[in-house]
Amino acid sequence: MSDHHHHNGPFPRGPLIACFVLVGAVLLLVGGYRLSGQGPVAQAPTRPPVLAADFHFRDRADGGVLVYDAAQSRLVDELEPGTHGFLRVTLRGMTRERRNHGLGPEQPFRIASWENGEVEVLDHATGRRISLRPFGIENAESFARLLRQGSGT
User: Fold this and answer.
1) How far is the C-alpha of 86 from the C-alpha of 83, rounded, in Å?
2) What ranges do the domains of the chain cover?
3) pLDDT of 68-115, one tens digit each?
């Protein structure tokens, strides 16, 4: 028996174009979802928060983080090294974004909560808001706990 290879010519253009259109549509939908405020990067809620406070976060030499209530300049909490991973990662990302814009730590971060249980972090320096609901109750609670310890204006 002999092996026969059949070559039907170049790949059909129709399915190739359909694939590109599908990928483009998915990218547009995802971008629209994020910009609509329903993704993790949210737009400002229309109602005022139930509780809100501004905080400064300062790294300690041993890897811990000092949390200060910005309004009263008082120490609210000390996060020991290796703890509060989600809170640390979120703030490091926001701090990196500040550095990318040439901004420093002078402006505080705001933590706010609403009647429906939504908690968000707002960077006063860049205007970026992160809704914490998509990351789970336990992760949002790590920020809400600080809010309850702060001045809560």
Assistant:
1) 9
2) 14-43, 51-149
3) 999 999 999 999 999 999 999 999 999 999 999 999 888 999 999 999
